[in-house]
Amino acid sequence: MATLFDKIWDRHVLAGKEGEAQLLYVDGHLIHEVTSPQAFSGLRLTGRKLRRPDLTYAVMDHNTPTTKKERENITDTVSKKQLDALRKNCDEFGVVLYDMDSEDNAIIHMMGPELGVSLPGKVIVCGDSHTATHGAFGAIACGIGTSEVEHVFATQTLWQAKPKNLGVRFCGSLPRGVYAKDMILALIGTYGNNVGKGSAIEFFGEAVEQMSMDERMTLCNMAIEAGAKFGLVRPDETTFAYVKDRRFAPKGDDFTRATAEWKKLYTDATEDFDTVIEMDISDLAPQITWGTVLNQVVSYDEPFPPVQNENDEKAYAYMDLKPGQTAKEIPVSHVFIGSCTNGRYSDFVIAAEILQGKKVKEGVTGIAVPGSQRVKRALEEAGIARIFIDAGFSWREAGCSLCLGMNPDKVPAYAHCASTSNRNFEGRQGKYARTHLVSPAMAALAAIHGTFQDSRLFVPEEQA
Amino acid sequence: MKFIKHTGTAVPLCIDNIDTDQLIPKQYLKGTEKTGYADALFDTWRYDENGDPVAEFPLNRPEYRNASLLIAGDNFGCGSSREHAAWALQDYGFRVVIAGSFSPIFYMNWLNNGNLPIQLPKRDRDALAALPPETEMEVDLQEQKLRAGGKVYSFELDAAWKERLLTGRDAIDLTLDFETEISAYEKKNPYWQGGCHAG
């Protein structure tokens, strides 16, 4: 009897004793400009080859500007140097690069799923901590450091200590106006930002089975925020339908053969998990982070908690908030909709339903950054981009953008930003900037009102 | 890089959840080298808005200037996978980080640069942090012991990583010994899962 994670793990072990670090084969390696240059230099220094350029997929996403004008003329010379280095490295080592002008350019964790690199049963790694996103397909996927990137380049393998298995069962179904983002934030708020320490988290339960791939990706994306390197979901018909016909997915008879194998990937019994957490989401409220650590999160209407330790004290000082206040009192001046957490098509549809016929409040800056150029084009063709533009949002090209502010997009010092991204750390979106993590619906409402409103109370016009 | 024994003084920074954005903010991630990150370590906490050192920040206090062991709280290195965090700590002069727990990606990054992560419970970390700043701490990896202030603290480390640190052997060289196993996987599996049938 084994878990989904264990089954995939066992198929990839090449060496090493059980209970110690083991050598795993890596079926897919995603790379970007920030964490790869030193790894390429390492290959050059040692005269080693990149073993499987055909299993290595590159994008530029972290540094890339999100306006057309800036993309054509990058003024930050250090950023430009890093982007040029990726071009040169990919060229020299034979790796396909989805450059800024490619129609496939995307945040790396959106490129993988869109092109069918993210498939059930695979081991996928990337020099980026949000790599667990691909676990949504029933894969083992994790972030690695640059030394490990070099190791994968040279050997197509990785040494890993096998984690424990944590099962997170979501019971019930989500109330209207509450989303996957709220689920993962609530999990971290309830059980702590280190609940997944030393574990791979498998998300399961009826609520997860009913989720779209977009939603499953949001859930798995933030496993690292719960302290786990890996997050995953059992692959099912939703998964197979999503991956079918994508560029790197098996086709025809191969797809039938692959699906038959993928159907064997599931946890045999709940008892196979080392630990199981159950969370009823039937009455879940929208979640908002108030502090600078992921577990500093409250439900809408819930007052911010009393100071319990130095961490809380530090966070309140940084955020300029006080215990007892509620999210309604936060003066939001910036709104960011995008990132590998919530930058997919359905995220923008949800936000657009709220923004339809409305205007961004005076004094509020709204920026909408689709996670991929493909999603951007689809939203433009469907007339959804127009809703954002008419509301007063700045409509941008794809990239990581304000999730970490490595590119020209920044939140100014001391400003409060409603953000659909994944980290509320000090300075994450700009020096002294104050981040509040929320769902796309909550972010859209914040843009209209300049503070947080209850996304459960919003009823789209056709349903009203 | 080898790690066998290390003796040095420690600086306490007993905060939980010290994330990689604090260890090194994004504006310093644009380099293409592994060195030159020492001044960027703890940038926002170490320097004020004018770029001047914050006098009370532990790393800026004269008594801790030469520390090579860092004592922190729980969940050290959480957040991004940036190895720049490990490079910055190392560049500054740290070889050992003692924490309640580590983020899994940072943990590997720190080890992969030949440095030692030590997990100790709060009681032990508090005792170490309370020692006078000039106290020499002695770390012996073979014995998996830390000696300081007349006490001995034991710590755990995966046997494979321990061996790697003690010998200082290049990880890639070590893995290339398994060429047969790697090729066998590539022959056995279909193209959508690592398979490679051309060779």
Q: Main sheet of chain A?
A: 5 strands, parallel
- Main sheet: strand order of chain B: 1-6-7-8
Question: Into which percentage range does the β-strand content of chain B fall?
Answer: 15-25%
Report the principal-axis shape of chain A. Answer: globular
Number of structurally distinct domains of chain B: 2
Distance between the termini of chain A: 49 Å
**Could you state the CATH homologous superfamily of the largest domain in chain B?**
Aconitase, domain 4
Structure summary, number of beta strands of chain A: 19
Largest beta-sheet details of chain B = 4 strands, antiparallel
Mean of the pLDDT scores of chain A? 97
Gyration radius over CA of chain B: 19 Å
Number of helices of chain A: 17
- Strand proportion of chain A, as a percent range, falls in 15-25%
Question: Based on the structure given, which CATH architecture of the largest domain in chain B is correct?
Answer: Alpha-Beta Barrel
Stretches of chain B where pLDDT is under 50 for at least 5 consecutive residues are: none
The assigned structural class of chain A equals: alpha/beta
Summed up, what is this model?
Chain A is of the alpha/beta class and 464 residues long. Chain A has helices spanning 4-12, 37-46, 68-72, 77-93, 108-115, 146-155, 180-191, 206-209, 213-221, 237-243, 252-262, 310-319, 339-342, 345-355, 373-381, 384-391, 440-449, and strands at residues 13-15, 22-25, 28-31, 56-59, 96-98, 123-126, 140-143, 157-160, 164-171, 199-204, 230-232, 275-280, 287-289, 297-299, 332-338, 365-369, 394-395, 416-419, 434-437.
Features:
heterodimer; A: about 475 residues; alpha/beta; Aconitase, domain 3; Aconitase, Domain 2; 3 domains; five-stranded parallel beta sheet; 17 helices; about 15% strand; B: about 200 residues; Aconitase, domain 4; four-stranded antiparallel beta sheet; four-stranded parallel beta sheet; 8 helices; 8 strands
